[in-house]
Amino acid sequence: MSATQTTSLAPSSLELALLQQLQAAGGTCTALTALPVEQKSSLRQRERACQNLRDRGWLDYDHDIVQFGLTLTGKTLLKLSLSVWPVTPDELLILRSCQGGRIHPDQIHRRVPVYDRQRLLERLTEQGLIVVYRRAIANLHLTALGKQSLLSG
Question: Which fold has domain 13-63+138-152?
Fold first, then answer.
């Protein structure tokens, strides 16, 4: 392996800080913003570092929907008669929740279970009833390769 290949595999100081904080948190974390990285960095830089670590196989995570709104199709659906809605009651509550504009998942009607919101949002997105404006890195966890690289480094 050449010197340039070796340096490309070595994590940057921010990537290393993220890995160490994740390891200190037990190897998992619910949100990137919950990791207390002491090095000054923007959220965008941390997201890019996570993407690099994921590309190397050291880290895995999900992308949760954090801001969304109705599409024209979703708005039209809400104007239809009750008997023709092709959505579940929980999905309908989500659609009604965002009639006023862009919202966050915590602004969805309280009758929609918190644990099920991301799944329902993804389904509504696939159906073209809502548009996703922003996603965030969530459910981070170190992979076996990531743990091994921390131990050897």
Answer: Arc Repressor Mutant, subunit A (1.10.10)
